[in-house]
Amino acid sequence: MTDLIQTFAVYALPIVFAITLHEAAHAYAAKYFGDDTAYSLGRMSLNPIKHIDPIGTLLIPIVLFFLQSPFLFGYAKPVPVEFGRLRNPKRDMAWVALAGPGANFVMALMWLLFSLGLLAFQVSEPYFLKMAKAGVETNLVILAFNLFPVPPLDGGRVMTSILPNRQAYQYSKLEPYGFFIVLGLAYFQVLHFWMVPVIGIVQTALQWILIPFTFFLS
Known about the structure:
Blueprint: H1 2-32, H2 37-40, H3 54-66, H4 89-120, H5 126-146, H6 154-162, H7 165-172, H8 178-187, H9 192-217
């Protein structure tokens, strides 16, 4: 129980930031490309309460924790987007979808810079070092998970956007079953073969971006 409380204390803030900014980024991108539905409903907000989903944000991560899944993930309350109101619905759908993982990429970078800052100023408090590590891990997992190409995940939206119209229509029919498919793949640890390579690619990209900062701080 003590370990669980400590884990919660370390991961709580990174998870709240990760899901809140992820959803707010979707709402901002939708408004930018012509659909103000989420904005008018108050979802273009940094208030985490507006984005928390009882099942996706709380229940699923807890269940996966007790199932000892190699990855803990969940989802927030989806931001409502009227794709028909976008200026170029098929193209802009992809940009709106990518905004969420893009926000997680930026947050992972921010947590890495925070970690470098702690080292540069010789801050050795374990709690902050663990939180910085948790911030990176959380955002990488949420990014990779959401890019999995099954609707209604962001990767599924991107796939629907780039497929020809007829194939895109057929592919979009998977949406009602998407989360059941993903949960099944996670349970049988098949999703692992997607998550690990994607996380590895993103980590490599982050390392390249950090080269000037590490050189300056060395």
